[in-house]
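Good morning C.,

I know you're traveling, so I'll keep this short. The sequence:
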Amino acid sequence: MSEIFNALPGIEVPVGSIKKSMTRMWDDVAAGGGAAPAHDNAKATQVNFVVQLGLHTTVEDALEQFQIAVRFSRRYPCRVVVLCPMPDEATTTEMRAKIYGECHLGKSKGDTRCCEFVMLNYPFSARPFVENQVSICLSSDLPLYYWPHRFISSARISQFKYLLNRSKRVILDSAITPADALTFAWPKPELVRDLAYARLLPVRQSIAQFLSAYPPASIVDGLNGVSLIHQPAVAAEARVLAKWLQTRLVNCGAKDIRVETQERAEGVSFELDFNYRNAHRFHWRGDLAHGSGSFTADLGTGTTTLPTTVSLLSPEAALGESMFF
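The tokens, ready to paste straight into the viewer:
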């Protein structure tokens, strides 16, 4: 994990002088004519954001997540603390730190949006002290959000009690987490959000908007079950979609409805069928590779065919959706 720390952009500074070094960094940027937050603008940040890079994270993946956080900060200015744990067998006992910052102009000249990054590289022996160091790095008057990325064990992440208990949201990605991540006994399970669910927002909205044209009773009249075929790459999103569909159909009055999912390597990303015992029909297909799809339905008022766009939220937009909605 030191390779990740070394690859991330920023200036290495002593752990004990992170705040002073951050102030000095912005002063140097301002002195050089660069964009920097005004001293009376509370650093132009709105949230604290802790990103923990698990031991399954590669250098390439870490750099990608870093850029996602930067793009996220252009809409939601934030103080970001990136945790880079070393493998258990690391022999060093010292913690290392880097700082990094960017500012961007928003919709007006006075709208300055800044992100401040603190990267902490720590050995397993220093884990009991990591959260204390994180708390020092955070802006105390701003809300906290926590995103453990590619962690290898839910039980090990559960040891970070300060982050799990203080955060307004704990953000997981069920596409890459351990199998028990969404059912694990987190301290505040009601605050856990799944990025797979957030990414699926445009798909959920598209299906809901189409079906909203029909009375709920006609949607569930004669409905025996639902089948959802999907490509392996979107298995997490398909699982989320199946659960969402089942909940919504029950809300429409369906009883004992099951949504069966099946992987298929060939074909479009998603193919959804409502299976009726009468003449009703509903079919949706979605192709993420081409951004297109279609609806075909006959729910008692004649056949309707409608082309539609199909997409997932961008990673930074999915973060925002998970945090704030």
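Safe travels,
E.
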